[in-house]
Records
---
Amino acid sequence: MTPDPIHDDLLAYTCDELDADRTAALKARLAADTDLAAEADALREAWARLIAEQTSDELSDGAVAELKARWIADNDDTEQWLAAAAQTRLSPDFTARLRARYVASLKPRRRWLSRSLIGMAACLLVGTGIWLTLLQPQPTHAYDISTASNRLQEVTSLHVRGTYYVYSQIDRHAPPDAQHWERYVARPYGKYVPTLGTHTGYKVSDGKTVVRVDHTTRQYIRYPEHPFAAKLSTEYSFRGSLVERLYGKPAYGYELVGTERHRDRIIEIYEQVHDSNGTRRRNLLWFDPSTGYVTRTKYYAKRADEPEHLVGEFDTVRYNVPPPPELFNFEPPQGYSATVLDDYPYDLVLASGAATKDGKTLKWINHCIFNINNRAVLLGWALVVEENGKIVDEPGLHSDPDDMFELQSYNDTPIWPHYHHLLRIDEGKFFHSRWSLIIPQDPHVDVSDSFPLLRFCLQDKHCVSGMGYPPLTLEPAKLREFVEEAQRATLPSGADEDQIFTLEELERIIDEYQSPEGMTDAGRDAVQIQMTRVNMAACLDPTY
Amino acid sequence: MNARDIHRTPADGGEPGNPGNPGEPGDLTILRQIADGDLTWFDVFARRHGGRLVAWLDSHLHDHHTAEELAQDVLLKVFKAARDGQFDDRREDLTAWLFTIANHRLIDHLRKVGRSSIARAGDMLDALASNEPDPAQTAVRVEQKHRVHAVIEQLPVAQRQVVRLKVFAGLTFAQIARLLDCPEPTIKSRMRYALLKVRQMIHEDESA
């Protein structure tokens, strides 16, 4: 694809990869060809600018030592590890702990000591139990921890404040960087979201307007938000991993490990422990059985050969409280550059992805994604091409979406063969919104937990992937409300509301596809999923 | 390009006869030794490749600590593969293999960050914030145009890949071609287009 082999040499020369003979030949040619010489200058100039950005990154002494430790630990050769550790720059503390572990593995355990300790602990526990039973107020078991997260569907607001701890990856014994974290979210909508901790910036929304402030660049920007988008993202806040972090995952089970008295109430302390990817995670949840609310959470992690460390804690968890006024500041901070957008095309966006090629940006927009009774996924979406910030095209608007739509695995999420039923296309002010029902061919697929990445590709291999965003699972009444309201949000003004698909109508479509007849009619609607190797695409297009 | 070519590149060191450090064994020799439990040259191998991995990962992440941790993961995987006989040095280029693993590790990390930052910070919307069409980002981009890193970010993805592998990982065009499974002339063309574009963008930026 190179226009002239001389350009190959020119590039190799630029990047110091050309051998001496060819360098001499090239220099002779450059002396005689002013155009080529000009290009050589241009390439050298750009190369010099890039090379100036080269960092002197190298694996530090600590990282090399740690790598060696990991390798030896992987080979389970502790003795060799100790020898290596003695020669390296591992901290004496780390080495000492490993030595202790090694020595402990060689000696028989002092069981009498263990038994004594267990006996003392048991006495203490029994004594404490008697004291609690006889002298303290008893917890009122109106609510059970395993179903307590359902209580969040009844609250109007949630205010969480806490700290999470960022540990050095190099020196694991260095004190962690404690980052303040805070969130307030209220139904029907309105939320405050810090960008990371609270020191780098924040996003605040009242359901009509969004303000983003970036402290690092001193930027302030305000733009309109569709009320339904605000409502939807608020609902996610009450059901997402924040809830899991606060209330734990019922599947891991809860073990009562203690109680604490708070004024006239007994707060139960539950523990959850689970292992994943070589890390043991332990959560402690302070639960008030009389209200059904978790009031405090601490969570820890432990990797092999390392002490357990505190990952984060939420020490303030309040329910049904008014918004703290200091969090909801919509005004630009003093000295920040402000941008205010009155007309914003992407005011109804849950998630999006973008890929630029040849100056054109292919943008995928996800308005919403719902789990339809664990049988299918309802997706509101749009696909646009932007050039210089303007929407110039909407690919595939009049063609079968199967031609450019596929599911793609991430993090080992299984890909399931599916049917793609395009329900409707709504014309909007800036672009069209499309409504799709993604129906697994296998009716037993759990769509709530395994929805893969979405990926759209044009014929010229210009592709964009959306983030793996789980379909929102709602209670039946709320699902009906949200599904209809979401479709109404994109319906052109004056359009007949009959165009909105009810939950029952969606179920009927699913029935039709998943019936044995539908399953065998693969040629009509089935989508054959295939993995895409992104990096290998478009090898023949050097401008790609 | 065969596996032995990797020893002849200046950045690599080399088999006995390494011009930079005479007497140091080559990559494959050290790798075999490490796989066999001999750690004599472990540090040499780790530094030789770790630095390039860190630089390349850092160019994506702009986070040196994370880059170092991921580089460790990559090297550990290489050692395990060598131990378990999963690397055939007669058929595979060590550098290309190393960066293939690094690429997978980086993708895994970026995906996990999207989700672990949620887990850590508590809500999906944090991750979404970075994925939304964000007018603030556009404004920020304008502010950062003068920075070469920002210029690299504006290159088409395939050109950006080549630039990073060339500039930050220090790979030869032949190694990049092998890594990306593309013909070498295509790689060179991408680099050429990228350089011309970088120069143009820098000039536009400086004259603005």
---
Amino acid sequence: VTAELGFGLFALLLVGLPAFRVVTSPDLVRAIFWLAGSLLGTAVLYALLQAPFLAGVQVLTYVGGVVTLMIFGVMVTRKHDGSNVGVGATARLRGAVAALAFFGVVAAAILRTDLSSLTPVETPSTQDLARSLLDQYLLAFEVASVLLLAAIVSAVVLARRKDPAPETPEAPEPAALRGGSAS
Amino acid sequence: MTLRALLLVATALFSIGIYGLLTRRHAVALLLSSR
């Protein structure tokens, strides 16, 4: 029980607190940095649970990829105007009630369910995973990469702006025809 | 670490996400908007 309490406290500090700051921070950029902290905390939890491969993938994919993409999305593609987004008290109350209700229902279901019948499986090592990906499931691995490539190409085609129409020679201003007295 | 504790942590995180989705809808819209 002590170990579980310690783990819960650790998870709260590493993941829960940054996650809460993500949804309460008024500045979008700060919220994204808190999200990076939360994802890093998740990676630490994975490492603590003897899943180093998952921890590495978590850091590479989420912290390195997704968070960087979000930062670019907010700071580069848009004129960064602070993007401060305040929240009203009613919305906060409504959100808190819904979140607590959801947590209560699911936590009660988890606590009442008998999980002792589930036997833990043997944890595969990183070497086992690599062998599976590049030997037994090589075809599925490559098909997945082709699918991702198709998604990237599709995103580029969809996001590309239409080429501007060829410029037509502008009609002369009436003022210019009259001798340009305005200048 | 038991599965139960991990499931409870995951549920707590999901609840925080629900709170964020309900209170920060305009921020989500801002992130998803093209301009």
